[in-house]
Amino acid sequence: xxxxxxxxxxxxxxxxxxxxxxxxxxxxxxxxxxxxxxxxxxxxxxxxxxxxxxxxxxxxxxxxxxxxxxxxxxxxxxxxxxxxxxxxxxxxx
Length: 93
Prior knowledge:
- Helix content is 65%, strand content 0%.
- The chain is mainly α.
- The protein has one domain: 434 Repressor (Amino-terminal Domain) (Orthogonal Bundle), CATH 1.10.260.
- Helix 3 crosses helix 4 (62-69).
- The chain is globular, with a radius of gyration of 16 Å.
- The chain starts with 9 loop residues before the first helix and ends in a 7-residue tail after the last helix.
């Protein structure tokens, strides 16, 4: 059975959604959180470590990392610093 759904690249979806003024306004509010989540995920994947491994290195729980990556938490500067250190990187906002 062939999958009837086609995945849409994020960049295309983002481009299409940016044509909607309401979306642009809400997107602007979430942009810092999105940037942090994206940087964390990219750095973690580049290091080839799991959320649990990152959590252990950053002295936090896996659920915390999951919430941050899912944009369901507002991290402290201290936590972001520990995560950046654990990933040997900088997180830019």
